[in-house]
Amino acid sequence: MSFRNEDKLFIHSNKMGIFKKYLQSKDVKETYKPRNIRSTYFDNANYEMYHNSIEGVVPRKKIRIREYPGFNNKFFLEKKISSVEGRFKTSSELKNLNFFQRGIKDKNYGLCSPISIVNYKRSYFSLDKIRITIDENITYQKFNLKRIFTESLVVVELKYPYKFHNDLVEFNFPFEKIRFSKYCNSIEKIYNI
């Protein structure tokens, strides 16, 4: 497992053109073509993953099944783990999709069921060891319901090795940082919290 830092930047949707020009001025490289992502998030009956994330409890995790509609027909079980040592993600391809019906048993959270679905378009870039993703057109829906909730923010994430020099990140990206969780926002919008 390799630990990493993740910073999220506040870029208002009407400023994205300016931000993308800024990225061009820094000579960032596009690493993949933009693609759509669909993540189905799981939680237990008490929404402990949601509450732990809101409260900043460490250790904590988020469990999701991720797919790339229109890109490939593969499904991945992912666990994002925040620990005292840092953050890391595990990912494994699924051959069986029974998890949507029977849930996922987790040693810390017990039986976790599908709770919400988050869809968005992601663009991928890099600058030195900094991976940059831009998530736009974010929507949320409760699992097995059709009503869609839209997100007004664009989420820019900077991902870089745990021991990478933070000053270099600050110098290249002098923008306001925010705390943002698509899963938590989906719960708040769906349940009007």
Summarize the structure.
The chain has 193 residues and is of the alpha+beta class. The chain contains five helices and eleven strands; from the N terminus they run βαβαβββαβββββαβα.
Q: What are the key terms here?
A:
193 residues, alpha+beta, mRNA Triphosphatase Cet1, Chain A, 11-stranded antiparallel beta sheet, 5 helices
Write the layout of secondary structure elements.
Layout: E1 4-11, H1 16-25, E2 29-43, H2 48-55, E3 60-67, E4 75-83, E5 86-94, H3 99-102, E6 104-106, E7 110-127, E8 130-142, E9 149-150, E10 154-161, H4 166-172, E11 177-178, H5 182-190
Antiparallel strand pairs: 1-10, 1-11, 2-3, 2-7, 3-4, 4-5, 6-7, 7-8, 8-9, 8-10
Please explain how this structure is put together:
The protein contains 5 helices and 11 strands, in the order E-H-E-H-E-E-E-H-E-E-E-E-E-H-E-H. The chain is an alpha+beta fold and 193 residues long. The radius of gyration is 17 Å and the shape is globular.
